[in-house]
Hints:
Layout: H1 2-33, E1 43-44, E2 54-62, H2 67-80, H3 93-109, E3 122-131, E4 142-143, H4 145-153, E5 162-167, E6 172-173, E7 182-187, E8 192-198, H5 205-208, H6 231-249, E9 256-257, E10 288-289, E11 296-297, E12 299-300, E13 306-307, E14 312-314, E15 319-321
Parallel strand pairs: 2-3, 2-5, 4-6, 5-8
Antiparallel strand pairs: 1-9, 7-8, 10-11, 12-13, 14-15
Amino acid sequence: MAVVRSKTALLLAAVMLASTAQLCIGARRRMELYRPDPADMLSFHNGGAVLHGDIPVSILWYGKFSAAQKSVIVDFLLSLTAETKAAAAAPSVAQWWSTIDQQYLSPVATTSSNGAGKKTTRVLLANQLSDGAYGAGSMGNSLTLEQIASLAATTKPKKGGIALVFTAEDVAVEGFGMGRCSLHGSDAGAGTAYIWVGNPATQCPGQCAWPFHQPAYGPQNPPLVAPNGDVGVDGMVMNLASMLAGAVTNPFGDAYYQGSSDAPLEACTACTGKFGSGSYPGYAGDLKVDSATGASYNANGARGRKYLLPALFDISTSACSTLV
Length: 324
């Protein structure tokens, strides 16, 4: 009887082993079946246009922003320009921007009709406007996406330039915090792009200021300390950086992107949630920490600023690349 049971046990073990092997093979085949086609990876679409050379940026501050808040964002923009590269130690904002310029902008600019003698692409601050009172002529503190585009046009961006619309924390924008923290669009006829970024401090910090705020969903790891001491504005810089990368590499929806042109993955949005090496869902990655403040960051900026910038999709490796 014991011999029969032993044979039965061996037979069951063999069947289980064979089944497990089949499952592993099946899983591997499924992985192979769903492996991304290289043709579907983020790439340049022939005939598309990018923004390059000197890119003038016009700003509209919509709602109440303190001088300190404006300074954090303006210093980030200044950190992108060639003139400030020497002011910040690596890893730096300028290094992050240089990666965009070299991988995305230069290849297109040097093959275009006016690509001869192409210089480094620079973001230059052109002008700033403010509408903080919601008074006569204002659109109020609840905006549609069409109104965002109209506000961008009031800054009168120059051809090849970008209008930046920043909304304060008490301004509601269509879709804000419901899958949208910012956006970029364009006026193809005028040859300009625009970016909107909202302050998420009170409306949606868990969606639009992570990892400087407890996430609204997913793993509940402790939030990181914001490098400039303002969760909302530090979150705005992260979102601005992502939209800026998309606006220059895919301004009119026909240049660098992956997937559908109606909902494209772009230079940064293809790497959502990644800020440092070893990142995974709910963990921003291995970052630098300021010994004095305990703040987390991955890029040095102008005037001693520190920022947390999103990873960029590296076209040469087809992987997300971080500064640290």
